[in-house]
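Review form for a predicted model. The reviewer records the input and the model, then writes brief findings.
Reviewer: anonymous (R2)
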Amino acid sequence: MSRLIARRLLQFPLVLALVYVATFALMAAAPGDPLVGDRTKVQPEVLEQMRQRYRLDKPWPVQMAYYARAAAAGAMQGRIDLGNSIQYKGKPVAEILGLTAATWPEGALRVSLTLGMLALTLAVMAGVHLGIWAAVRQNRLTDHLCMAVSVVGVSLPTFVTGAVLIMLLALLLPIFPVGGWGSLSQMILPAITLSLPFAATIARLMRAGMLDVLGSDFIRTARAKGAPDRAIIYRHAFKLAFLPVLSFLGPAAAAVLTGSFVVEQLFAVPGIGQHFVASVMHRDYPVILATVLVYAVLLIGFNLLVDLAYFFIDPRISQEELR
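Model under review:
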């Protein structure tokens, strides 16, 4: 296990560097100028000063090197330096995303992580149980209903399910507020909307894994010994059937914990999704780059946790098999 962790930690900066270079290259190739738009009436001298301030007068490889050097210097001093926003008139990006100690309690990243944790919990609980119910009642009405729900959850985009939930549970039946953030009632609708596609995928994976395990020899042996069905499902079959879901949870956790941009826009949740959408619309390069890097760090980190979890869930997997 220690070799696996060491290998992943060595790969971490390389993958992050590749994401960094690719993101910078795509931003440089995108048409448009971040300083042209609502600032078109600004004097040319002022625009030139702003261009120099944000290093936009330099080639993009020089900008990339400067950004990396500033971030490394800030890290050596014990602070997070991700540049200054163009859209927010020079405000540090770390403060906008809530990455500093002062802005973390009410920051955008904490909001997205809170929403993502709630949505991921709902997705795992609902998806696992739907998959198990469908597997143990294969080709029955329960199986068909569970799979129909999962197909609908995978097929419908979040802006459709979110709009339907708002109309049903916020307008026709005013049970929950339409949007906002701060109370538990304001978290329920966006969490359900964000969790539905992941719950549907988990249900399908869990059903397939459970059907595969239930046909194994050791399951037939347990049944021949008179073990109750509940013990067979949750004590013997669950761990192995959960492995496909575990593989899916790595990238899914990173995606859901960084918050869905559509869901945050739809329910007016002040997470990093709103900042990312606004930064793309206004070509705010520092915010775009910082958001992508945060997502990359979470994705790499959760994939590492998934690899480590295999050692505790599946005893058949050795270190050599995870190389």
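Findings: The longest helix spans residues 184-214.
Further findings: The domain at 108-270 is CATH 1.10.3720.10 (MetI-like fold).
Recommendation: see findings above.
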